[in-house]
């Protein structure tokens, strides 16, 4: 008797109500924070209609940063840590501004800011501009590297290297001539043995358990250049993992050779740009 199929996440009872509740909570929280930040903008001497845009600089940056974290979930740790830092700074700024707003109104009927707080508020807009531009560059670099690696991966797995060949020995039937001429075979045997002794087969200097490189050169170079575009360098271990993820095998010496060559290309390009 087969077990019942598991329910999809959308079919779980109460799932839609939870999503609607989360959306409403986010809207209410944004509205309350928006009101406090707008009053902070008025107290910070922001003019006219621009006070309505000031809350978007802080809380809007938080929302964009969270979406960026989802997009960069496969990015290197350094990139994700940088985005987390930006989101943390924006969240801390929003919390601090809300606290100053509440404490200021609690002490009097009109919100007044000291010089340090007013100066800090005036620095939020240019800092948000710099952070947003650099966040865009980080996301664009990650997406470009991911697209290059997707183009470098083959459409189908390498069937030639994955499918083992037929290694069964081929049986050769003995002919009548072979059966009637045993003396000829006996005479030719010493000559064959002498030939084998003089020219032994070449030994393959391969370490025990080491696999040969099956990845084509175009896949090796394109994958290494995609990793270099994302990281600025090509670690050998990262290149090996990317090649094996595509269904190929690669020797450490070959991976190190390609990684060093692409790293030298990146360094040469950087020196050329610096000279220009």
UniProtKB/TrEMBL annotation:
Compositional bias per record (Basic and acidic residues), positions renumbered to this chain: 165-174
Region (Disordered) residue spans: 149-218
Transmembrane segments: 20-37, 49-72, 81-104, 116-139
Bias (Low complexity) ranges: 149-164, 180-195
Sections of the chain in a coiled coil: none
Keywords, sorted A to Z: Membrane, Transmembrane, Transmembrane helix
Keyword Transmembrane helix carried by entry: yes
Record-given protein name: DUF2637 domain-containing protein
Organism: Streptomyces vulcanius
């Amino acid at each position: 008797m087969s077990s019942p199929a598991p329910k999809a996440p959308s079919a779980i009872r109460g799932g839609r109500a939870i999503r609607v509740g989360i959306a409403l909570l986010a809207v209410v929280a944004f509205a309350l924070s928006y009101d406090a930040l707008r009053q902070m903008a008025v107290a910070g001497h922001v003019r006219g209609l621009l006070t309505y845009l000031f809350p978007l600089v802080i809380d809007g940056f938080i929302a964009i940063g969270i979406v960026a974290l989802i997009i960069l979930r496969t990015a290197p740790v350094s990139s994700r840590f940088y985005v987390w830092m930006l989101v943390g700074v924006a969240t801390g700024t929003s919390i601090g501004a809300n606290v100053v707003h509440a404490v200021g109104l609690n002490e009097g009927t009109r919100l007044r800011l000291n010089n340090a707080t007013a100066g800090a508020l005036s620095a939020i807009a240019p800092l948000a501009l710099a952070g947003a531009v650099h966040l865009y560059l980080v996301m664009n670099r990650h997406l470009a590297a991911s697209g290059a690696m997707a183009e470098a991966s083959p459409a189908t797995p390498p069937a030639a290297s994955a499918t083992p060949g037929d290694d069964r020995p081929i049986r050769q039937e003995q002919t009548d001539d072979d059966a009637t001429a045993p003396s000829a075979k006996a005479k030719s045997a010493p000559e064959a043995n002498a030939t084998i002794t003089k020219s032994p087969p070449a030994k393959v200097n391969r370490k025990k358990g080491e696999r040969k490189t099956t990845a084509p050169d175009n896949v090796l170079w394109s994958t290494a250049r995609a990793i270099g575009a994302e990281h600025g360098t090509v670690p050998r271990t990262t290149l090996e993992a990317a090649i094996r993820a595509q269904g190929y095998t690669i020797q450490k010496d070959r991976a190190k050779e390609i990684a060093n060559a692409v790293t030298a290309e990146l360094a040469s390009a950087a020196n050329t740009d610096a000279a220009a």
